[in-house]
Amino acid sequence: MRMPVKQMFLVVGAVTLLSVVSPMSAGSVFGADLANAKKVYKDKCLKCHGETGKGDGPKADTLETKAADYTDKKKMAKFTDADLIKITKDGKKPMPGYATKLSDQEIVDVIAYIRTFAQP
């Protein structure tokens, strides 16, 4: 059975669009509750990572190791979502672990939210 030309163009267009969008940025956001993630970020992350994710929060100067800059596209591209979930759950000095403080869904949501800082 042949696909109508109009439908074929829609499929090709959608596939092209998906291949152009970064899998890291697009995949992270699908299904995430970014409104809730923003609240979690403000409560748990902003103090060190800052309002815009640059690692310049009000407590950043007190840390022995600089807080991660989530706006650094090259650095963020090196981390998979699984890497960031593990770091968030287990902690990475000086950041504490949040495995017992946040639900798995909240962690996934906040990872999707921090990914937005490295967007164009």
Q: What is the CATH architecture descriptor?
A: Orthogonal Bundle
User: Rounded to an integer, what's the Rg over CA atoms?
Assistant: 18 Å
Domain count: 1
Q: Could you say what the CATH topology is called?
A: Cytochrome Bc1 Complex, Chain D, domain 2
Oligomeric composition of the shown chains: single chain
What is the count of helical runs?
A: 7
Question: Could you characterize the architecture of this molecule?
Answer:
With 120 residues, this protein is mostly helical. The chain has a single domain (5-118), classed as Cytochrome c-like domain (Cytochrome Bc1 Complex, Chain D, domain 2, Orthogonal Bundle), CATH 1.10.760.10. Helices cover 54% and strands 0% of the residues. The chain has 7 helices and no strands. The chain has helices at 5-20, 23-29, 34-44, 46-49, 73-77, 81-90, 104-115. It is globular and about 65 Å long.
Keywords:
0% strand; 120 residues; Cytochrome Bc1 Complex, Chain D, domain 2
In short:
By secondary structure, the protein is mainly α. The chain has 7 helices and no strands. Helix 6 crosses helix 7 (104-115).
Write the layout of secondary structure elements.
Layout: H1 5-20, H2 23-29, H3 34-44, H4 46-49, H5 73-77, H6 81-90, H7 104-115
Helix pairs in contact: 2-7, 3-7, 6-7
